[in-house]
UniProtKB/TrEMBL annotation:
Keyword NAD: no
Pfam family of the protein (one): MVD-like_N
InterPro entries (UniProt xref): GHMP_kinase_C_sf, Mev_decarb, Mev_diP_decarb, MVD-like_N, Mvd1_C, Ribosomal_Su5_D2-typ_SF, Ribsml_uS5_D2-typ_fold_subgr
The entry's keywords: ATP-binding, Lipid biosynthesis, Lipid metabolism, Lyase, Nucleotide-binding
All copies of domain Diphosphomevalonate decarboxylase-like N-terminal, residue ranges: 10-165
Superkingdom field: Bacteria
Family membership: Belongs to the diphosphomevalonate decarboxylase family.
Protein name (record): diphosphomevalonate decarboxylase
Record organism: Dietzia timorensis
GO biological process: isopentenyl diphosphate biosynthetic process, mevalonate pathway
Length: 335
């Protein structure tokens, strides 16, 4: 915290037990808990600088002035921070995403966790990890988990205080990200969650299933069985996409290429490789495997999309101006 400026870096996460549905949209309380791995790549870097003379907030995203819903969500989040800090000062926010925005690779998770750290520092708040997780959750539910290093469990809770993420022990694992389409998806996760909860005849059972799955995943992480973790994750991902497809009108995030990757992963598994597929709300697929097998899995899937091996990474944290400058300069120059 210094001179009304805060700078932070955060990374996306991939849920192995999915978050899909809210019990309280205003407070962003999930219908059930979830578990995820924070990445060590695809960073979001965010700088917030207060300007007491400004009449409104400004938002820059990836080198361009942001407007519409993207800017409105940042301003709404800053309003929450201002209320916490007892401040009326407006702010200039600059953000760079290395991951594709709104393509099913959790850019909102890294975005709002980085914003939570940067804005809290700029406005002079001294928040511990649990408080930062609660704050990040107000911007995007999955951002609650990107505050945490490595594997995180997000407790659903019944109140704001009870709903936060914290670390959970798990074996060392890798995810092979297979990007098949980096374009922004037609239906946002937020809208799709609303539609699923309002129109799917299976939504209630989905919530119950998620609560039961979370218990099994906690046990699997504690026992250290990567295959059991993968089996649970793949099953739960397919169930999530099934309930999304059951809403009215239906939403289909997985593409034919996505299904092809799931099939290729099953073939790898049949041949003796540790490989289990999962996908968030988008067409891109993540394949859970061991560190020793990650490069081989990536090689086997290279013809199906752009592949990158990611491991468990740091949660959101403050960084200095010099560290951030390269990311901002690259975005503004288009490189």
């Amino acid at each position: 915290m210094s001179n009304g400026v805060g700078i932070a870096r955060a990374y996306p996460n991939m849920a192995l037990v999915k978050y899909w549905g809210k019990r309280d949209e205003a407070m962003m309380l999930p219908a059930a808990g979830s578990i995820s791995m924070t990445f060590d790549t695809y960073a979001t870097t965010t700088r917030v600088e207060l300007d007491p003379t400004a009449q409104s907030d400004t938002v820059e995203l990836n080198g361009q002035v942001a407007g519409g819903d993207a800017a409105a969500r940042v301003v709404a989040f800053l309003d929450i921070v201002r209320e916490m800090a007892g401040s009326q000062s407006r702010a200039h926010t600059v953000t760079v995403n290395e991951a594709p925005t709104a393509a099913g690779l959790a850019s909102s998770a890294s975005g709002f966790s980085a914003l939570a750290v940067a804005a809290s520092r700029a406005y002079g708040l001294d928040l511990d990890q649990a408080a930062l997780s609660r704050l990040a959750r107000r911007g995007s539910g999955s951002a609650a988990r990107s505050v945490v290093d490595g594997m995180a469990i997000w407790h659903a809770g019944d109140t704001d205080v009870e709903s936060f993420a914290e670390p959970i022990d798990a074996p060392d694992m890798r995810l092979v990200i297979v990007t098949v389409n980096a374009a922004q998806k037609a239906v946002s996760s937020r809208e799709a969650m609303r539609r699923t909860a309002a129109t799917s005849p299976f939504y209630g059972e989905w919530v119950t299933c998620t609560e039961e799955t979370l218990e099994r995943m906690v046990a699997a992480c504690a026992s250290g069985g990567v295959d059991e973790i993968g089996r649970i994750a793949e099953t739960h991902a397919l169930r999530m996409h099934a309930v999304i497809q059951s809403c009215d009108p239906p939403i289909r995030y997985l593409s034919p290429r996505s299904h092809e990757i799931f099939d290729a992963v099953a073939a790898l598994r049949d041949a003796g490789t540790t490989a289990w597929a999962t996908a968030d709300a988008g067409p891109n697929v993540a394949v859970l495997t061991t560190p020793a097998e990650a490069d081989a899995v990536a090689g086997a899937l290279a013809d199906l999309g752009t592949v990158r091996v990611v491991g468990p990474g740091h949660g959101a944290r403050a960084i200095d101006e010099e560290t951030a400058r390269a990311a901002f300069d690259a975005a503004r120059s288009g490189t």
